[in-house]
Amino acid sequence: MFTAYDKAAAAAIGTAVTTVLAAVTTLDPDVIGAVGTLVTAGLVWLVPNKQPE
């Protein structure tokens, strides 16, 4: 990985996970929104920043 777009890719994956979760469960929309926020924020936090050259 280690490109300029790693954090954006992590956010896109978090959004995709949230979308799939909403499609396959009957959870309340507020719960899905909260879970999606936590998953996306966690993934973005885990992905390291690109090191300067």
Average residue-wise pLDDT = 90
* Alpha-beta classification: mainly alpha
Spatial shape: elongated
Helix percentage range: 55-70%
Overall strand count: 0
Q: What characterizes the major β-sheet?
A: none
List the helices and strands and how they pair.
Blueprint: H1 6-24, H2 29-46
Helix pairs in contact: 1-2
Give your account of this protein's structure.
The structure is a single chain. The radius of gyration is 13 Å and the shape is elongated. The protein starts with 5 loop residues before the first helix and ends in a 7-residue tail after the last helix. Helix 1 (6-24) runs antiparallel to helix 2 (29-46). The longest helix has 19 residues, at 6-24. The protein has 53 residues and is an all-alpha fold. It has helices spanning 6-24, 29-46. Keywords: Membrane, Transmembrane, Transmembrane helix. The chain crosses the membrane at residues 32-48.
